[in-house]
Amino acid sequence: MSHTQAKVHRMFELLEPIATVTFSDIPNEAFLALGMRDYWDGYFAGRAAPLGPAPAEVVHAVFYNFADGEVARHIPWVWGKISPQEAIAVRERSSAAALRQLIGQLADSPGLVRAADLATRAAVSAPTEGRALYAALRALDVPKEPVARLWHAATLLREHRGDGHNAALVAHGIGGTQAHVLMALSLGMRAEEFGRLHHLPKARLAAVIDGLRGRGLVNATGGFTDAGRETKKRIETLTDELAAPPYNVLNAAELHELVAELEPIATAARSYDA
Predict the structure, then answer these.
(1) 157, 123 in Cβ contact below 8 A?
(2) How far apart are CA 252 and CA 223, in angstroms?
(3) Dihedrals phi, psi of 224, to nearest 5 degrees
(4) Burial class of 104 by CB neighbour count within 10 A (0 to 12, 13 to 18, 19+)
(5) pLDDT tens across 48-80, in order?
C-alpha cells in the first residue's frame, strides 16, 4: 500500500542515526586495527565492499557525491590490506557493537526485535533495478542477531534512498559536489563552511559555485536564489517519492508500529553525531 510522503520522510529521519553508527568510533577503530591509514580508508572499504573489488571509477559513480580523485586515494589501495568479504564482516560486526553500546538496554528489548523484523521486511522488498548499491547490499546475507539485523535493514533502506537521491540529482542536472553546496545553503551555511567542501581548493570550489550561479540557483553573494531553493525542494520531494517502495509491503498499522518502536532507538543512537 502507499504511505504519505511525511511518513516516508519520518522513516528516513529515524533510520539515519541507526545506519550511520557505521561511521562512528568503534567501526573506525576496527578498520584501523586491520591496517587502514585513516578514517576514509575504513569508510571506503566498508561502504564499497558489497560492490566487490570495483575500480575507483565505479565506486565514484555509485557514491556520486565525492569530488574527482577522492575515491582513488583509497580504492583500490584498501583491497591490498583487506578483502571486500572481510570488510563486510568487520563493518557488520563493529556497527552492531556500536549500535548496541549507544542504545544500552534497548538492545535486548522486544521492541527492537519487532523493529528489526518489520524494517527487514521493508528493506528486502523493493525492486533493485537502477539501484546499484542497494542491489549489492541485497545480495548479502541478512544477519540473524537482532541488533545487527536492525543495523543491516537500516543500511539497506538508507542506500535505497541514497540511490534514489542520486537519480533525483541527475534528473535535475546537479552534480555531486554541487549537491553539497545546495545542502550547505539549506542548512544556513556558506558552502566554504560545509564539512564535505571546505577541504577543496578555493579555485575548485569557486568553479562549482559559479556553475550553480550561472544556472540562477545561487546569487552573487553565494546564497540561495528563489530558483535554487525551489530546485532543492523538488529534489528532496522526489527523493522521498523514490524512497517509498520498500514501505509498501507494510500496512498502515505496521508502519505506525515500526515508527513507534524506532523512535527511542533512534533517539539513543543520535548520541553519536554523524
Answers:
(1) yes
(2) 40
(3) -65, 140
(4) exposed
(5) 999 999 999 999 999 999 999 999 999 999 999
Contacts of 226 (CB under 8 A, 6+ apart): none
Distance CA 115, CA 149 (A): 10
d(C-alpha 11, C-alpha 114), whole Å: 15
CA distances from 122 to 78, 173, 216, 243 (A): 32, 30, 39, 11
**Which of 109, 111, 122, 112 is closest to 148 using CA atoms?**
112
Using a 10 angstrom Cβ sphere, with 0-12 exposed, 13-18 middle and 19 or more buried, the burial of residue 113 is middle
pTM above 0.70, yes or no: yes
Q: Which residues pair with 218 in a beta bridge?
A: 224
Cβ 242 vs Cβ 105: under 8 Å: no
In contact, 265 and 112? CB cutoff 8 Å: yes
Q: How confident is the model at residue 274 (pLDDT cuts 50, 70, 90)?
A: very low
Instruction: Determine the 3-state secondary structure of 115 from DSSP.
Output: helix
Burial status of residue 97 (CB atoms within 10 A of its CB: 0-12, 13-18, 19 or more): middle
Sequence ranges of the domains in the chain = 5-170+236-270
Q: Please count the CA atoms within 13 angstroms of the CA of 108 that sit on its side-chain side.
A: 3
Question: Which cell numbers hold the place of 23?
Answer: 561511521
Task: Report the C-alpha gap between 25 and 76 in whole angstroms.
Answer: 23
